[in-house]
UniProtKB/TrEMBL annotation:
Protein name: Adenine DNA glycosylase
Ranges of residues in domain HhH-GPD: 35-186
Pfam families (alphabetical): HHH, HhH-GPD, NUDIX_4
Keyword Acetylation on entry: no
EC number per UniProt: 3.2.2.31
The protein's required cofactors: [4Fe-4S] cluster
Catalytic activity: Hydrolyzes free adenine bases from 7,8-dihydro-8-oxoguanine:adenine mismatched double-stranded DNA, leaving an apurinic site
SUPFAM superfamilies given in the database record: DNA-glycosylase (SSF48150), Nudix (SSF55811)
Source domain of life: Bacteria
One Gene Ontology molecular-function label: oxidized purine DNA binding
Organism: Flavobacterium cellulosilyticum
Family: Belongs to the Nth/MutY family.
Keywords: 4Fe-4S, DNA damage, DNA repair, Glycosidase, Hydrolase, Iron, Iron-sulfur, Metal-binding
Keyword Membrane on entry: no
Gene name for this UniProt entry: mutY
């Protein structure tokens, strides 16, 4: 029995019951694929269900406010995905009359849709014979065929895509793509896969050569930058606070946060007190400053580690355009601030 047949039989016996597998509608396939970029299925599933409840069609998503979209996305991270999702929905609704492109090349032209996502939509919705290549596919194929190509190289994707295309049954590319991704997610996992129960344990080259833990080869290592955020959580005499919107390009674009004091490293009370009085608030309006979190919260992003502390600033009188505790919870926040508001601040 060949690789593809064995893989598909395994898939039909072991596949997870996922909501986006019950449809071939491109809107829902597109939505799920954008959400699952850099996101585990278990984490992404409730967000997918929330989105299709709030926005059953691409027209509903197109007509929504960006802040509503960002609020529903809150916690999924990589917020540029949500902003691109919204812009693409508007383009499809307004320029394409709500009809998604029906082929790989035209799907690639949509904002936020890369090669992998275009291939997924094209094969799942339109049965186009185009292979998906993601981390799961790199891992499964590199191990089974003992391919030592460095997957961080740009040329690697073409090599693996060509191999996947050769293996793919052209009359049913969707099931092959689903199967190889599912196999990588459930069986041929990155660390310590249970090869004793694998359907390929008699034919996998990496297993025979005892190289499973060495493949795929990936030499490029991401440099991580450390940043230090001190959030000044204001509370005036009416229990109102202050927010600001992150409008600059970079992390958390268009999300909200408390006034931010970014420093070169961990800072103590005296530094925060001095900066607050000199640059944020008038000295005579500050009643007290407290270190709310004591120890920094380390929030890890793919390319940055944020060391975050929250400082409580009690002010005399009332702040201009102050936000009350109920309204505060309606804004879209980075998940670390959302959790602080829910669990710590009790604003």
């Amino acid at each position: 029995m060949n690789f593809s047949k064995t893989l598909i039989i395994w898939y039909l016996q072991n596949k997870r019951d996922l909501p986006w597998r019950k449809t071939d509608k491109p809107y829902r396939i597109w939505l799920s694929e954008i959400m699952l970029q850099q996101t585990r299925v278990a984490q992404g599933t409730p967000y997918f269900l929330s989105f299709i409840t709030a926005f059953p069609t691409v027209f509903d998503l197109a007509q929504a406010d960006e802040e509503q979209v960002l609020k529903l996305w809150q916690g999924l991270g990589y917020y540029s995905r949500a902003r691109n999702l919204h812009k693409t929905a508007q383009f499809v609704a307004n320029e394409l009359s709500g009809i998604f492109p029906d082929n790989y090349n035209d799907l690639l032209k949509l904002k936020g849709v890369g090669e992998y996502t275009a291939a997924a939509i094209a094969s799942f919705s339109f049965n186009e014979a185009v292979p998906v290549v993601d981390g799961n596919v790199f891992r499964v194929l590199s191990r089974y065929f003992d391919i030592e190509t460095d997957i961080s190289l740009a040329s690697a994707k073409k090599e693996f895509a060509a191999l996947a295309f050769e293996l793919m049954p052209k009359d049913n590319p969707a099931i092959f793509n689903q199967a190889i991704m599912e196999f990588g997610a459930l069986q041929c996992v990155p660390k310590s896969p249970d090869c004793t129960i694998c359907v390929f344990n008699s034919s996998c080259a990496a297993l025979q050569k005892k190289k499973v833990d060495q493949l795929p080869v990936k030499s490029k290592k991401l440099k991580v930058r450390n940043r230090y955020f001190n959030y000044l959580v204001v509370k005036d005499e009416e229990a109102k606070t202050i927010l600001q919107k992150r409008t600059a390009k970079g992390i958390w674009h268009n999300l909200y946060e408390f006034p931010l004091l970014e420093s070169d490293g961990e800072v103590e009370f005296d530094y925060v007190s001095e900066q607050s009085k000199n640059h944020f608030f008038k000295n005579d309006t500050i009643i007290s400053i407290e270190d709310w979190t004591q120890k920094s919260i380390i929030h890890k992003l793919s390319h940055q580690h944020l060391h975050i502390k929250f400082w409580k600033i009690n002010l005399k009188g009332t702040v201009e355009n102050g936000i009350d505790p109920i309204t505060l919870k309606t804004f879209p926040f980075p998940i670390v601030i959302h959790k602080f508001i829910e669990n710590e601040a009790r604003l």
